Amino acid sequence: MMGRGTRLCPDLFGPGLHKEHFLIFDFCQNFEFFNQNPNLTDAAPGESLSARLFKTRLDVFGEIEDADRPSGTETGELMQLRASLAARLFDEVAGMTLDNFIVRPKRRYVEKYQDKTAWDRLPSAERTELAEHLAGLPSALVDDDLAAKQFDLLVLMTQLAVLRADLAFAGLQARIRGIAAQLEELGNVPMVKAQLSFIAQVQSDEYWQDLTAGMLEHLRRRLRDLVKLIEPRARKIVYTDFADEIGEALAIANPHAGYGTDKSRFLMKVRQFLSRHQDHITIRKLRRNEQLTPLDLTELERIFVAEGIAVDEDLDRIRGEGGIGLFIRSLVGLERDAAKEALAGFMTGRTLTANQIEFINLVLDHLTERGAMDPRRLYESPFTDFDDQGVAGVFSLEDARVLVQVLRDVGGRAAA
């Protein structure tokens, strides 16, 4: 139900500043279920905390790397901070394994920066390369302390503000002092009690005079493991008392809803059926990429209805989406050997580059997991990570056509 948020409100933002639009976040796909077609926009995906930490560490590193500094105590602190940041970033990249399909497309960058000598000097172009291609990739270096990571980011942003003489420093300083005040309230906790004198010092004005990035690093190390002890403060509950005006109820027929919100339950029943009948000859043929016959498909549909897995409306929908063969193949995937055999003809007689081999391995992974592949996927991520043109940029035009035909043949064998 779309309720009060859709109402008009004159002068909401001031005299003459009326409410002119509203946003609907359709997390449960209600528009799709009820066949509505409003103007939709996809929200931009938020950047992960790990990626933000990686990039902010690079920014601090870059400020130190590019700065003209006279010799002295502060310079020594900055060099220690630079070395610490480089070691932390290197450890994160060193923990990225090429066995991970998310990491594999970035192989050239991972291998380049897993060489420790690459970190001796990082000019701006290489820092940009690291931020663009490696920030946020899965790594064996894992830190599960969310509160500590959020505190790390806060201190890193404060270090940046100090190094850049940024006006944002005042607000960041206030946030750190607020955290210190909350920690002081936990003085009875032994871990906090051991740091009480330092926590009191952080709240003083004297501490923040002539503050350096090195001092902030010292603060981060001493307090990061304590931040998780702070209990979230409950927000004040706001109660409203409005009377809704509801019009006359109308019954609306929606014959095209299909299995709608029961789709997850439907898929669960199908997967249970497949786990019990994985040796069924038709399912084995699907996994082995063998050609199905019309009789195979008819028998599968008959079993689905006989065992109460699907009704006629479900089968109609499945037929409209490519047929029951492709539907089941998408759930059981292809055997790895069958996927390799399907691509063997394409690879025979061709001398492939390292990028082309990686590209084919991604196709193999996709076929093994999902059983078939729409050739249009070859022009989308992760295949565009190799080249902006996807398959057309990695292979010649003729080879790209052959590979597209191979994928169409693989899908065709799941349909009679």
Sheet with most strands: none
User: Cα-atom Rg, whole angstroms?
Assistant: 29 Å
Overall outline: extended
Low-pLDDT residue spans: 255-261
Number of strands: 0
Instruction: Provide the residue-averaged pLDDT.
Output: 85
Query: What percentage of the residues does DSSP assign to strands (E)?
Result: under 5%
- Main structural class: mainly alpha
- In DSSP terms (H or I, runs of 4 or more residues), the helix count works out at 19
For the termini, the CA-CA separation is 44 Å
H-E string: HHHHHHHHHHHHHHHHHHH
| Helical proportion, percent range | 40-55%
Can you characterise this structure?
The protein has 416 residues and is mainly alpha-helical. Among the domains are: 49-229, no CATH class; 336-412, no CATH class. The chain contains 19 helices and no strands. Helix 2 (49-66) packs antiparallel against helix 3, helix 2 runs antiparallel to helix 5 (124-133) and helix 16 runs antiparallel to helix 17. The longest helix is centred in the first third of the chain and has 22 residues, at 73-94.
Provide a short characterization of the protein structure.
The chain is mainly α. 53% of the residues lie in helices and 0% in strands.
